[in-house]
Design goal:
The protein has 361 residues and is of the alpha+beta class. The protein has 14 helices and nine strands. A hairpin with a 5-residue loop joins strand 1 and strand 2.
Length: 361
């Protein structure tokens, strides 16, 4: 039994060594600005990201496409470095925090998100990212940094052509004609909202809310004065104006019943609501302006309180779409211009490449 067990250990060690050696195999060498190798392990990591996003295992042909994309990315990054382009880590950190905030629906720092995940799921941010995209925080930030540098370089090369991609009058009118039903106003109000958190003293918070409302009602303080005071340190309350659709979802987000929001809309502009108590605060609203539901013509204002028309909004959106589409074309043109035999050496081709790319099959 000892000899059999020893043989198994030797076989396992040999297999592990073979896998390790396979991961270190160089698939392609890129040398536009400096020699850089793309190994099987590097390709596995990137394929793992796509497989997690797509929810399926990539085929050998798809892995070849990822390999080509990695080659092109390396070429563009080297060209950007040669041109002196770089992205500071502070910008990457900010971009990372914005992405993470969007994913959780709240503005959070990296440390706050890490604490939140530990409390709610019992895992770190590193572990969460590893599960979702196959990279830890440091690896993901490096990935983001490289993507930002690639985008910046392509813009420097093709910015003039990209900016020429503008929606035409004919395209704008055609889009409006085929999407008229999308351009409507529901009943809406511009409201001024005051929120007083309960904190550790519920009665004090209630009295503060009543005092602010009384000062506004008696004109002892204007909307602007209340807003300015709320921005001061230790003011004890928040305030601001916003556009609110008269919907059940909006009422829920405001912490009031839908019928109360409807009732408020039925009042004249300037109406001041009762003080509402939620689980965490006391609040009241002032109806500043009302906007009745209607179908919008192409020359109508798209959103109350702005000078942007439906025509302007469509033009902006279509132009952004056209420029994004052209950016993809421009990116491929830049990559193609760099992807030349003198800059790229395929170390593995044919059956040898297929064999290395067949991991897990």
């Amino acid at each position: 039994m000892k000899k059999i067990a020893l043989s198994l250990l030797v076989l396992l060690a040999t297999a592990t060594c073979m896998f390790a050696q396979s991961d270190l195999q160089i698939l392609t060498s890129v040398k536009y600005n400096k020699p850089e190798n793309i190994t099987v392990k590097m390709l596995k990591v990137r394929c793992g990201v796509y497989e997690k996003q797509m929810g399926k295992k990539l085929t050998v042909d798809e892995r070849k496409m990822v390999l080509n994309a990695l080659v092109e990315e390396k070429l563009v990054l080297q060209a950007a470095a040669k041109a002196g382009l770089s992205i500071p880590d502070s910008t990457v950190d900010q971009y990372f925090a914005q992405n993470m905030s969007q994913s959780v629906g709240a503005v959070v720092s990296e440390a706050e998100l890490n604490d939140m995940l530990k409390k709610q799921q019992g895992i770190t941010l590193d572990q969460a990212l590893q599960q979702q995209v196959g990279m830890n925080v440091a690896e993901y930030k490096l990935y983001l940094k490289n993507q930002l540098i690639v985008q910046q370089y392509i813009l420097t090369q093709k910015q003039a052509d990209i900016q020429k991609q503008v929606a035409t009058d004919e395209e704008i009118k055609a889009f409006y004609a085929s999407n008229k039903a999308q351009f409507v106003w529901t009943d809406m109000m511009k409201v001024f909202l005051v929120i007083v958190p309960k904190g550790s003293d519920t009665n004090a918070a209630k009295m503060k809310a009543a005092d602010i409302k009384n000062k506004y009602t008696t004109k002892a303080m204007t909307e602007e004065q209340i807003l300015a005071a709320s921005t001061q340190p230790n003011s004890g309350y928040q305030s601001g104006s916003m556009l609110v659709p008269v919907t059940a979802a909006a009422a829920e987000s405001l912490g009031i019943q839908f019928k109360k929001l409807q009732s408020m809309f039925d009042q004249k502009a300037g109406y001041i609501s009762d003080i509402e108590e939620t689980a965490t605060d006391f609040r009241f609203m002032v109806s500043l302006e009302k906007y009745n539901a209607k179908m919008l013509a192409i020359s109508d204002i798209y959103q109350p309180g702005t000078n942007v028309t439906v025509y302007d909004a469509i033009r902006s959106n279509l132009t952004a779409q056209k420029q994004m589409q052209y950016f993809q074309i421009a990116a491929q043109e830049v990559a193609d211009s760099l992807n030349k035999p003198e800059y790229v050496e395929q170390k593995k081709t044919g059956d040898a490449l297929d064999k290395l790319l067949s991991w897990g099959d």
